[in-house]
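Re: weekly structure request thread

Next one in the queue (283 aa):
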Amino acid sequence: MTDVLTTTTSLTHSWHPPGGVTTRGTLLVLPGRGEHGGVYERFGRRLAADGYAVHTTGPGVEDAPDSIGAALLEAAGADPVTPLVLVGADTGALLALRAAGDPRLPVDGIVLAGIASAEAAAPGRTAGTAVSGIVSSADSAGYRPGDGPGWQDELGARTACPVHRRRLSSDPEFRRGALSAPVPAALLEPTALTARGLPVLVLHGDADPVTSADEARGRAEGFPRAVVGIVHGGVHDVLNDASHRTVAATVVQWLERLRGGAELSPVLTVETDPHHVLGRIPE
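Done, posted below.
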């Protein structure tokens, strides 16, 4: 089997299933504050290996939320394989909710990861306020000369994965400090997604210092077909945090259920007690 096919343009990044693997669906990833599509290479390659085509939007889409539908159509290309799923992180999650209402996009489901909130982006709050000290001096490989505690705090707020910390630290396209920028007011406007009844997977870290897990749970209550996954010890960039493998596996399992229909019927049920069958209690 050949490797995952990766393509990159000045605007987007894409990962396609290896040769011989049938494409099972299409994911459109909307990055969050400070990020670009390449930040999701690890996620894209893993999902592509499981048979899903993954595309990211180009830079600047958060500055033009009214045109996000057109940007996603361009990223998806002609005749994308269904189900078509939007994957949004941070402000990208808010963009995904907005884009789902675009009638040109035949969206089948949405994944919301580390969703941003108005409270977390209030002017004057820094991203690392609640997590100062998470990044230790011993974990500073890849830092640029002159990086101070503010950058270490931002990394601590974003991810506990040392590989991803190094990736962000050495990435010239990543915009430092963006996590404390205000969320555009247009993204905080109510959407009509609830009326559409789309399946939604909400993924959030219970140690996220940017948006609380309770706020994410509250958001999920507004969706009639919501599944919530809480990452124990997870911080904000949940798709790229220390538990990224488990999170990616959860996304794949949800996608496989989505392929069976919007009812999200279980594909497999794990019975934790092999002695407890059909309600019978062992003697």
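The longest helix spans residues 244-259. Residues 120-142 have pLDDT under 50 and may be disordered.
Next request, please.
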